[in-house]
Amino acid sequence: MYTVVAERSTTTTAVGWIGYIIIGGIAGWLASKIMGTDAQMGVVLNVVVGVIGAFLGGFLLSFAFDTASGGWWFTFFTALLGSVILLFLVKLVTGRR
Questions:
Q1: Which residues form the signal peptide (predicted)?
Q2: CA–CA separation, 59 vs 3, rounded Å?
Q3: pLDDT digit string (tens) for 21-75?
Q4: What is the pTM of this model?
């Protein structure tokens, strides 16, 4: 009798650290535009939100997809999704509009 266990992707993408910073900056900036927090955030905070959002989105999507082989576009949309979720949670906790 075999038991099938769903495996998550535990490796990082082939984008690299510089790619994460570039993609994170763009994704963080777009997420701040979507969530209406762009006036409160600077460039550095956009990059931080984007990079943390990339890891958050990658973690959440790794349960359903192989996130390690996605490439630049998949990494960007993952970072954007994670950044929007992160900003939503921050707004929810802090109570800011």
A1: none
A2: 24
A3: 888 889 999 999 998 887 777 888 888 888 898 888 888 888 887 766 777 888 8
A4: 0.76
